[in-house]
Structure formats: structure tokens, C-alpha cells
Amino acid sequence: MNSNLVVFAKELSRTKPVELPEKFLQLDNLLQRSTSVTSVKYEIISLDILPILLLTLRQDFTTISNGWRLASISLSKLACSCMCVEVDKNNVKTKAWSSKFFDQYLPQGIDSFLLLTRHIQDRYTQEKKSHIRQDYVSYMDTVMNNLLEVLSFHSNQYSLIKQVLVSPKFMELFLTDDVYICRLMIDTFENIIRKSRRLTGPSVFYELSTKLKHDYVNELAYKLTVFDNNDVGKAAVRALIAICEADSKIVMLLVDKFKGLPTILQRWHGRGFGMDLQDLLAIINRGAKSGPYSREYHRENYAASRIQALWRGYASRKRLMKANQAMKQFQNSFRKRKMKETQMKNEQRERAEVQYQATREHYRRLRQFKLQQVQTIQLLPASEVEKYLEIQRLRSATKIQAIFRGYLQRRTLVNSGYDRLIADRAARRIQRTFRRYLQRKQAELDRRQKRLEYIKPAILTEAKREELLEQIETWRSERAPRAMSDEEFLALHTRAQENLNRYVTTNRAWRRIEQRQRLLLHMMNNDSEFLLSNYPKLKSVMEPSNERISSINQLDQAAKYLNHPSSAIRYRARQAHTEALKHARAPWYKGLQMANMDEDEDDEDEYFNRGGLDEFSRNDILNNPIRYEYEKRKFHQFTPNTTTSSIERHQ
């Protein structure tokens, strides 16, 4: 016995299940370097290394780097090589374990190959990348080839073929909608059916249950109906031919249950496997007892199936279009929601980061302020510490009040923001309408200008036009504006300042004259009212001298009152009191009018009281007759209309 294999078997018993795939690569190298391969295989089987290898094929290789490639290419090939060995039950070397090899190891190996292929199919359906999916298809093809090689080597072991056909894992692999896996499994199924024929007696497929045979036939008919791939169609037709040759009852099943199958087979014509189609149709026609499989019958069935196919295709495309639109909307909404969620998460994260930074900055400033306050308190005398703390408290209170007032102001602005928004929109609407109006007017003017450009006077010739242009250029050149020097600018500025000073001085003199005239007018009105209210009555004149003397005393008092310097002030106070009473008793709308009139009078009084007349200005106005007449007209223009005096009213 090979010592290396004994050592390998001992190490294998101590190896973890995860490390077994890498460990079996050493066995593959040892098998390739050996001179007697058959003896090495016998020793592998006798040392029970083969069942461990078959158990290793059943595990999940996802966690191992390139595990599925290692399992499908290296380990499955090694298991196939160990199982493809001739074992004689009468041989002394193999008699001890030959029965175990045929009864346990071979069925276990077939099951391991099917389970490995099923795992690879699961990985294929989960993978999204196309190049990795192609790798998985190649892995499945390798494992199925190894399985067929084992079945071919042990062709007399029909129980193995039956085990494959009855296996639920093989049926799961067979029931697929993927094009690549479907073609692979149909080819494998056809090869297995052709290997199941016995030299004498019925085939292995004939011994299967009726339900299982119907399942295989139904799946092949389904693939011929649904798929449009040439390889799948060719493989399905060849598989049906193999089944019909293996079991004659299948022909009757196709005739009775699948009456539309010949019509379906018509659409596969011209695909490159017409001979196989003709063979299958011939088998079906031979099996039909009295079925109307004439040319006219085929043509009518083909037309009906064609119409149905077109309608189903139209309906399927319509449903698919609606499904695509619905899926598109669903994907768009899902992406938008995901994008919104991502954006919200980012905003929350940024907001949290900003808040964290602001909090850190706040605590840093607070700590710095506290340290600075402590240092300041340490430097201050004990008598001024309380005063310093009071100042700090007042500043803090002021700051808090300012922040709160700002908050109230912002809230007020927010509450009244809708009205402001409406006003802004209205203003923008008005401005937009006016701009469009201006644009239309400008466009109309431009159109008129363009029309005028094309209209030339009938009498204006080119020579006349050139002559006029020359005259215009000559006139412009002769009267071109010349630049002023600094001296001229200074002289012009000096004259302007003199005119301005003269105007201001004259205006001030006129204001003083107007002020004096208004004061004299007020004094006259005051004196007249006083005289009318205090003059002696006619009865006192006709009475004795005492009353006459008393009236004379009243006149003296009136004269003193009129000559008193405060008479104008008393009159102004009385007039203000009267106006205040009128304003208090008048309605609210007249109060507004009076307020506006008072403002105008105040402005006028301010205008009158702004300047004064000096001796030079007065003489200038009196000595200049033209200026005097102008100021006189101006005075009558600003002076209110002369009303009837109090004396005329009493008379």
C-alpha cells in the first residue's frame, strides 16, 4: 500500500471541513504523478477517502475563495476519476469493498453531482453580473459532463440511470426558464435517455412511473411552446424523439393529450433542424389512429394557432408595456424616495455636525469667558468686585432683552409676510405689464422707423444727398464744442457762487419784510378787536361828568393796553386758544383737515422766520425801482386776501 496515501488519509481525518477542498488538491497531484493509476484508485477507495471527497462536494463553497470553480473543475473531476474504475467482485484485491462501492459510493457520487449542480444553479440565479453568470453555466456544464462520464463508464448499472431520472434534484434542474441551463439540461436528459436502452427488455425510462414520464413530456412540450431559442427547440425535439423511441406509449400520449403539438412544431421550420422535426411529426402521424392530420387540417390548425399567437403576442406586449410603465413609475418613485431619504440623512448628519460644532464653540467661549472673568476678579480690588459683577449682570440682561426683541420682530415680520408677498406679486405684475406695454410701443416705433428707411423723397437724388451730407459735416466741424480750460471753469464757478449768494441774501431780506408785515397785520387786528370791545357807549356820553370821566379812564386804559409790548403775544396766545377749542370740538375728518392746514402754516412760519434783512439789502431793494416792483408783486401774491375788518363788521 502506498505510504503517501496512508499519511494523507491520517491527515484527512484531522483536517477541518473548510480546509478539505484545498487538501484534496494534493490528492489530485498525487494521482497524476503516480505510474499505476488504477492501483492508486483502489487504495483511495479502500482507505475510505472517496466517501469523504463525495461529502465534500455536498458542502457550500461560498465562503471559500473561488470555491465553486474549485468544486466543479477540480474536485468533481477527481471524484469522476476515482469512480470511473473497473471493479471485479471476484478479484481478491477488490472483493472486500466492491459491494460497498456499487451499493453506496456510486449512488452517493451521483447524488453529490446533482446536489453540486443544484447549488451552482442557485448561485447563478442570485448573481446579477453577466460574465459571472457565464462562469456558473460553464461550471454546471463541467459537472454534468462528469456525471455523464460516470454513467457511460458504468453503463451496465441501470439503477444509476434510474436514480438520476427519479431524483427530485434533477427534476428541479430540468424545470428552469433560463435559456442556457434549459439547453444544458435537455441535452443531458437526452443523453441519459439514450444510455438507458437495454440490449434486451424495456428501457429504464419505460420503467418509470406514469406521472414522472408525463411530467418530463409536459416540460418538453412547454419549452417548445414558450421558448424561441433555436438550441432549446432543437434539443427539445431530439429529446422527444428519444422518449418516443424508448417508450411507445409516449406517442399515444402526444397524440391524445397534445393535439396542437404538430401545429406548434410548424413554427420551428427553417431553424436548421428540419430533419428532426420531420422525424418527430412522422412518429406522431404513425401513432395517430384516425386523426385528421392531412395537409388541409395542418394548414387550418397552423392558421388558427398563428392568429392566436399574434393575439396573445399583442396582449402580452400590451400587458408588458403597462407593466413596464408601472415598473418604471415604481422604480422612479422608489429612487426618488431613496434619494430623498439619503438627502435627509445627509442633512441630518450635517445639521448634527453643525450643532455639535456650535455646542463645542459655545462651551469653549463660555469657558474662556469664565476664565477671563476669574482672572479679572483676581486682578480687581475687593471693593470693586461687586461693582464689576453688577455691570456684567446688566450687560447680560441687555443682551437677553435684545435677542428677545429681535425674536419678536422676526415673528411679526413672518406673520405679516403673506401680505407683503401679495403686494410684491402685485407690484411685479404691474411692472411686467408696463414693461410689455413699453416694449410694444418701442416695437411699433421701430417698425415705423424701418418703413421710413425704405421711403426716399422723390426729389432727393444721390448728388443732392451727398451735397446735404457735406453741408451737415461742414456745419458740425465749424460749430464743434471746444474744451474749456481750468481758468474758464474757475471763472464760471465764481460767477455761479456770486449769483447764488445774491439770491440767498435777497431772499433773506424779503423774508424779514414779510415777517414784519405779518406782525403788523396781527397787531392791527388785535388793536381793532380791543377797541371795539372796550369803546365807551353812547349812553355814557349823554350822562353826567362822573360817568364821562370813567369812560375817559377806560380809554386811557385801552391806550395803555394797546401800547404795551406784550399785546402781540397776547393776541397770538388768544388765537392759539381759539384754534385749539375749534380743533377739540370739530369732527374727526375736520380735525385731519385742520392738522394739515396747521402743518402748512408752520412750514410757512418757518420759511418767514429763516432769514433777516440787513441795512444794505433794504437799501438795495428801495433804491432799485424794478426790484421793488418785483418784490411788491411777490408780496401781494403770498399775502392772503384782505378780509373785512372787525370795525366794518360792527358798523
Brief rundown of the structure:
It comes from Rotaria sordida. This protein has 27 helices and no strands.
Number of helical regions: 27
The ordered H/E elements are: HHHHHHHHHHHHHHHHHHHHHHHHHHH
Q: What is the β-strand count?
A: 0
First-to-last CA distance: 165 Å
Give a quick account of the main beta sheet: strands, pairing sense, barrel closure: none
Helical proportion, percent range: over 70%
Beta strand %: under 5%
Shape: elongated
As a whole number of angstroms, the C-alpha radius of gyration is 61 Å
Mean pLDDT: 77
Return residue spans where pLDDT drops below 50 for at least 5 consecutive residues. 289-295, 544-549, 599-618, 636-651
Q: What is the multimeric organization of the chains shown?
A: single chain
Classification by helices and strands: mainly alpha
Features:
651 residues; mainly alpha; 27 helices; IQ_motif_EF-hand-BS; IQCB1
Would you mind describing this structure in some detail?
The protein is built from 27 helices and no strands. The protein is mainly α and 651 residues long. Among the domains are: 1-154; 293-379. Helix 5 packs parallel to helix 7 and helix 25 packs across helix 26. The longest helix is centred in the middle third of the chain and has 85 residues, at 295-379. One of its GO terms (molecular function) is calmodulin binding. This is IQ calmodulin-binding motif-containing protein 1.
